[in-house]
Design goal:
There is one protein chain. The protein is an alpha+beta fold. It has a domain at 17-88: Alpha-Beta Plaits, CATH 3.30.70. Helix content is 25%, strand content 13%. The protein has helices at residues 25-37, 72-87; strands spanning 17-22, 63-67, 90-91, 98-99. The longest helix is centred in the last third of the chain and has 16 residues, at 72-87. It binds zinc ion. Zinc ion binds at residues 92, 94-95, 97, 106, 108-109, 111.
């Protein structure tokens, strides 16, 4: 067996404040990574899993993201910019197909998005 382990989540400090509520735990982890890549601190709290494992799909649970209060505005700004850019569609330069902003490659002809 050589299963890849999920990275340990980063846990929020008690003094941190909620900056955003991600749609699910997977998006939350990704956004924490995004904030950390931008030089901010960010983390999660307990995912509210007490007894719920197996009953509620983890990817259906809204998951708040926390950051230090003094970084809240910047963290929010980064997430908003990310959300906006991920929803901006782009037109494939090769086949003119319109693709969702979250895709890096044209779904029809597999050409890379050269505008990003
Ligand atoms: Zn294309």
């Amino acid at each position: 067996m050589n299963m890849a382990h999920d990275p340990e989540p980063t846990w929020a400090e008690p003094s941190w404040v909620e900056v955003y509520s991600a749609a699910n735990a997977i998006e939350a982890q990704m956004l924490v990574g995004l904030l950390q890549a931008n030089g901010l601190q960010a983390g999660l709290r307990g995912l509210g899993m007490g007894g719920a494992i197996g009953e509620v799909p983890i990817d259906a649970l809204a998951t708040p993201i926390y950051a230090p209060p003094e970084q809240k505005a910047r963290a929010h700004d980064i997430i908003m910019r990310y959300e906006a850019s991920s929803e901006t569609p782009w037109t494939c330069p090769h086949c003119q197909e319109e693709n969702g902003g979250q895709f890096e490659f044209c779904w029809q002809c597999n050409a890379p998005n050269s505008f990003s």
